[in-house]
Each structure stands twice: as structure tokens, then as C-alpha cells.
Amino acid sequence: MTRWFLILITALGLTGCGYNDFQRLDEQTKSAWSEVLNQYQRRADLVPNIVATVKGEAAFEQETLTQVIEARAKATSIQVTPETLNDPQAFQKFQAAQGALGSALSRLMAVSERYPNLKANQGFSDLRVQLEGTENRVTVARNRYIQAVQDYNVLSRSFPTNLTAMVFGYPPKPSFTVQNEAAISAPPVVDFNKK
Fold this sequence. Notes:
By secondary structure, this protein is an all-alpha fold. 75% of the residues lie in helices and 0% in strands. The chain has a single domain (22-178), classed as de novo design (two linked rop proteins). It contains 8 helices and no strands. The radius of gyration is 23 Å and the shape is elongated. The model is unreliable at 190-195 (pLDDT under 50).
């Protein structure tokens, strides 16, 4: 009788430990992260087509193209594994490389506005639309990842599930951060007189 009583007490004690919630939320963060990677890969796959189309415009700024090519090479050279989610330095390095690629692509699109032949090129126009759609998908995937990490981190820091996190090794996961918060918090300068 005492043995069954101890088993019952132990079972009741474990129901509030959150172990199964950790399993569910850990898988959810991995799934959300996979979608982020999927969208980053989609973007990286578009870059060679965009670069090839832009190279057809003889007067196009070579420096901008070089920056895009180099940023893509750097972004795709970083090997990402599920363990990256638990390594803040590796995560930060990957995030910085993806941010650099996004910035280089934004500069490319801005500079392309100065080239009427390029703007009129249907292939470039189609690629631009695909890139804009991909950037939107990246944003949605990152937002889902941020939410999944938030749910996981709340569980890992709340009592009594924080005890389960310590016992079974579920540390908080890093989330996306802004690289240069001061720069993006300043309002953009709009000058219609500049050509």
C-alpha cells in the first residue's frame, strides 16, 4: 500500500513539472527555425539570378554587385545545425551574415532604380517581385520563431518548470536581435531634391 501511495505521489508531482511541455516547445522552436532557414535559402537561391540579370546592364555599379555576391557567399558558408539555437555566439554570427545579405540586396534594389533599361527588364522585374515576396516570408518566419522562443523561454524561466529545465538541461534559447538598434531608431531622411 505504501509503495502505491509513493508511486501516486510521484506521478502527481511530475504532472506539473513541464517535461512534456519542454519537449513540445523545443520541437516547435526547431520547426520554426527550420522555416527561417528555408526562407533564407530561398533568398540565397534568388541572388545568382538577380546578379546575372543586373550584370547585363553594362553601366551598373560593380561595387554594389560585388557586395551582394560577397554577402551571399558569407551567408551561405555558415553551417547551421539545431545546436546553433543553443549557441548564442554561433547564432549571432549567422544572424549578422543574413543581415549583411539583406542589406546588400536592399542597396542593389535601391541602386537599380537609376537604370531605366534594368527597370524595364521583365526578368529583373519578376525577380524583384520574387525577392520582395521572399523578404516578407523571411519576416513571417522570423516572427514565428521569435514567438516559439518566447513560449519556450517563459516555460524555462517560470516556477516550477524552471526546476525541470535545470534538471534536464533546457536553457533559454536566443531570439533574434537587431544589430544596430540606434541606427534603425533614427527616422529616415527624405530628400526629394537629391538626384
